[in-house]
Amino acid sequence: MRIGIFGGSFNPIHNGHVILGETMLHEMKLDEVWYMVSPHNPLKQAADLLDENERLHLVELALEGHEGLKACNFEFQLKRPSYTWDTLQALHLQYPQHEFSLIIGGDNWDVFDKWAHHEEILQKYKIAVFPREGSDIDEALLPENVRLIHVPLVNVTSTQLRQMLRESKSITDYVPYMVEEEIKQRKLYR
Predict the structure, then answer these.
(1) First-to-last CA distance in the chain?
(2) CA distances from 67 to 70, 100, 147, 156, 181 (A)
(3) What pLDDT was estimated at residue 14?
(4) Mean pLDDT of all residues in the chain?
(5) Nearest partner of 158 among 109, 110, 101, 105, judged by Cα
(6) Are 189 and 164 in contact (CB under 8 A)?
(7) In this predicted structure, what is the pLDDT of residue 77?
(8) pLDDT (tens digit, 9 = 90+) per residue, 96-147?
(9) For the stretch 53-70, what's the b/e string if a residue is b when 16 or more beta carbons lie within 10 angstroms of its beta carbon?
(10) Residue 45: pLDDT above 70?
(11) pTM recorded for the entire structure
(12) Crossing angle of the two packed helices 52-63 and 177-186, in degrees rounded to 10
């Protein structure tokens, strides 16, 4: 199987994440996209993160009914902080029958040279990069196994959603219905 690994905090997941997964399935001709919920991104502050199991649950709710999109807690069993190289190596050992590709945003591509083992990742894996606001990617300069995938730009970030929730503003237009309901009922991000 051809699997796209879309890692992130998903703090919280929003419609843009879901649209992105659907687009990657089609454009990259993948069998599945695994939403790899990161317990702790080494480049982000841990203090602002909702508990990993809570975030995983929200991802599961968001992906219900979306064939080929899967919530994944694989990194929960790995040492922390979680580095993409370690995750890819562990995935390859556990699922040698699968071919893995990495899905990252343009903002991550901009700092990719700061990632642990970034050269090895480039050598061993295909990478799909999606544009992010403020990120300017020159397609002509991308390495051979890195592909820019144009996806509809959803003009909201998880950071903005957390702020909206703290201010008791509606997030209806930005997240799947079940995610909004769960956040409301459990008073998450307040």
Answers:
(1) 40
(2) 8, 18, 23, 24, 22
(3) 97
(4) 93
(5) 105
(6) no
(7) 93
(8) 999 999 999 999 999 999 999 999 999 999 999 998 877 788 899 999 999 9
(9) ebbbbbbbbbbeeeebbb
(10) no
(11) 0.93
(12) 150
Name the amino acid, one letter, at 17: H
> Which pair of tokens denotes residue 70?
């899967």
**Contact 34/70 with Cβ under 8 angstroms?**
yes
Question: CA-to-CA distance for 26 and 153, rounded, in angstroms?
Answer: 17
Token representation of residue 58: 């929200």
Tokens 């992105």 identify what position? 20
Q: What are phi and psi of 14, to 5 degrees?
A: -140, 175
pLDDT for residue 136: 82
- Structure token pair of residue 100: 């893995």
The 3-state secondary structure of 101-160 reads EEEEEHHHHHCHHHCCCHHHHHHHCEEEEECCCCCCCCHHHCCCCEEECCCCCCCCCHHH
Q: Cα–Cα distance between 190 and 48 in angstroms, integer?
A: 12
The DSSP 8-state label assigned to residue 45 in this structure reads: -
SS3 96: coil
pLDDT at position 42 over 60: no
- Dihedral angle over CA of 159, 55, 184, 63, nearest 10: 100
Single-letter residue type at 28: M
